[in-house]
Amino acid sequence: MSASVVQNPPFLPPEDQEQKNIIDKLADFVLKNESKFEER
Questions:
Q1: Are 19 and 27 in contact (CB under 8 A)?
Q2: Are 13 and 20 in contact (CB under 8 A)?
Q3: Backbone angles phi, psi at 2, to 5 degrees
Q4: Distances (CA, A) of 33 to 6, 10, 19, 29
Q5: Are 11 and 19 spatial neighbours (Cβ–Cβ below 8 Å)?
Q6: pLDDT of res. 1
Q7: Can you give the pLDDT at residue 38?
Q8: Taking a C-beta distance cutoff of 8 angstroms, is the pair 14, 23 a contact?
Q9: CA–CA separation, 15 vs 7, rounded Å?
Q10: Cα separations (Å) of 17 from 12, 13, 20, 30?
């Protein structure tokens, strides 16, 4: 007998547009500077 597991995202995205913009900018920064983060 196998049980099916439903995986939910760890959290819902914020409804506030300003928070979404901040998160997007942070994600872009991390993507652009990925190699610098990996060196540390």
A1: no
A2: yes
A3: -110, 140
A4: 34, 25, 21, 6
A5: no
A6: 53
A7: 73
A8: yes
A9: 21
A10: 13, 10, 5, 20
Sorted by sequence, the CB contacts under 8 Å of residue 13 that are 6+ apart come out as: 20, 23
pLDDT in tens, 7-40: 877 888 899 999 999 999 999 999 999 888 777 6
pLDDT the model gives residue 4: 75
- pLDDT given for residue 3 in this prediction: 67
CA angle, residues 15, 17, 21, in degrees to nearest 5: 120
Q: Which residue has the tokens 């099916």?
A: 4
